[in-house]
Design brief:
This protein is an alpha/beta fold. It contains seven helices and six strands; from the N terminus they run βββαβαβαβαααα. The protein has a six-stranded mixed β-sheet with strand order 1-2-4-3-5-6.
Amino acid sequence: MAKKFEDVSQPRDYKLIVEKDVKITLRDGAILYADVLRPDGGSEQFPAIMNMGPYQKDRLWIPPDDLEEKANPYLAWETANPMWWCPRGYALVRVDSRGSGKSPGQSEPNSYQEGVDFHDAIEYVAKLPWCSGNIGTLGVSYHANSQWRAANTQPPSLKAIIPWEGRADLYRDQAFHGGIFAMGFLQNWIAANIAHKHQGFARAANPRRSAMHTGAG
């Protein structure tokens, strides 16, 4: 048993390969776009850590200076840090869900369809030449919810999920938390992260500021 966190895994001297706008084809012919960040291991294959959501993979979130994990050019909001995982032999795959970021289609956040899409994306990535066929998911909040939706469809290549700070039941955990009707958070979230796609507003680095600056909501 590891006695301290540093004993779990040590980084190797991998160079980082960044592939932008990788096309993923779903069972219904729809296309999603993803960014792949992976170790340069030549012919070596790696497991992948995936996430899918509406936050736009190309929008980087720069955290406060006092966070333990300092900002880097590849850090994205509520997803795994490639500067920690890739040197340890994992690839990261960030997928824009339908109608989000660069992925075309109709945006349906928190839907069953999104779980099916995630299932297809997992199986697609598992067959890429650099992938070992083993997929995990990791993320916070929305990127936790989407993991449960994907796992519910039982993708054969999905080996582990690491969700935290998520909601398994949107009705009980959010709309009627504790039996009290409360839609304030959800309304603000939609204004900050979803409405701008339909209204043509550009999204700033901070989604809450974006809602205030554009008047959304």
